[in-house]
Amino acid sequence: MVPHSDDSRGCMKCGHTETEVGEISTTGGGLSKMFDIQTNSFKVVTCTNCGYSELYRDRTAGSSDIVDVFLG
Q: Which InterPro entries match (predicted)?
């Protein structure tokens, strides 16, 4: 495993620098869960080499900002 440090870029697990970005939606609690209303949206950033993934609440305008956070 390659440790992630401030001066390195890439996947926290393997150091690879290519990613895929996907989306998932989930229900919250209470009535939204009972009626299956999906109130939470997340971006999923996945390393194309090892498959390590992180979820980010979808509050940004573009996915490139999220990839920058994932890669360090």
A: DUF2082_NA-bd_Znr (IPR018652)
